[in-house]
Amino acid sequence: MTLRILLTGGSGRLGKQIKKLNQEIYGVDLFAPTHETMDLAKWNNVLDVVERFSPESIIHCAAYTNVAKAEKERERCWSVNVDGTRNILQASKLLPSLHFVFISTACVFRGDRGNYTELDLPYPKNFYGLSKLVGEVLVQNSGLENWLIVRTNFVEREHWPFKKAFVDRWGTYLYADEVAKAVLKLVMERATGIVHVCGEDKISMFDLAKKTSPNVEPLTLEEYYGENPDAPALTRDMSLKSIR
Predict the structure, then answer these.
(1) Which fold does the domain 3-156+174-199 belong to in CATH?
(2) Please, are residues 57 and 98 in contact by the beta-carbon 8 Å criterion?
């Protein structure tokens, strides 16, 4: 029996890995519409795609993820992360047994102590984190019975895109392809509730960057704010733990 999965955000870091991995899995029919085919900000557009494809699972990866720009482009961030999520949830209600998966972030937490579990209280430090937390609340109050929120923190398995990396910001990072495998496993199991998908070890961004870019230079938050006094508040420790 073929499992029909609708994937939003198929051109993003995680979406690309899910599409790539899907080619190796037997029994999955995955449809990842382009932005032109399904604009999440347009209700009729979203409704049309959901009705035509009639998925059994939706993996909602589409998101505005630039933390710094979100402070200046709040309306755009809200439109994607909140209004877009509301639209896809509304369309999902047409399919009562549908399994809805919302990809969230460690940024829903304050980032002051780390080792956050699924039971810890979210308290965002920046607008991006706030928009994703509102998305989580929409999912939990959507009326859907089979919903899953996946909180994670990942990067692509490629050269570090910046000259420097923070030595005093930490996380339990994974690579996007590792998260993709975990998400598809959770979809196949029809897992529900909130799950943290994270690495076992807490490491700094600098140590993470050195894995793919040995010549990356160290950077501290103090140095960063000295050079960028108007920069948004950044989290210090976004490490996650899972009790699930």
Answers:
(1) Rossmann fold (3.40.50)
(2) yes
Name the helix (H) or strand (E) containing 5.
strand 3-8
- How large is the greatest C-alpha to C-alpha distance in the chain, in angstroms? 58
CA-to-CA distance for 69 and 125, rounded, in angstroms? Answer: 14
The pLDDT value recorded for residue 233 is 82
Beta strands in 37-84 (DSSP E): 57-60
Residue type present at position 198: C
Contacts of 118 (CB under 8 A, 6+ apart): 151, 193, 194, 195, 196, 242, 243, 244
Q: Say if residue 227's pLDDT is above 80.
A: yes
User: Distance between CA atoms of 6 and 8, rounded to whole angstroms?
Assistant: 7
Spatial separation of the C-alpha atoms in residues 142 and 84, rounded to whole Å: 14
Q: Reading across the β-sheet that carries 99-105, which strands appear in turn?
A: 28-31, 3-8, 57-60, 99-105, 146-152, 193-197
Q: What is the pLDDT of residue 231?
A: 86
Distances (CA, A) of 71 to 50, 178, 231: 32, 29, 9
Q: What is the number of residues in the chain?
A: 244
Question: 173, 166, 163: which is closest to 216 by C-alpha?
Answer: 163
Amino acid code (one letter) for 14: L
**pLDDT band, residue 238 (cuts 50/70/90):** very high
DSSP 8-state assignment for residue 37: T
Instruction: Enumerate the domain spans of the chain.
Output: 3-156+174-199
Give CA–CA dist 50/92, Å, rounded: 7
Q: How far apart are CA 32 and CA 59, in angstroms?
A: 10
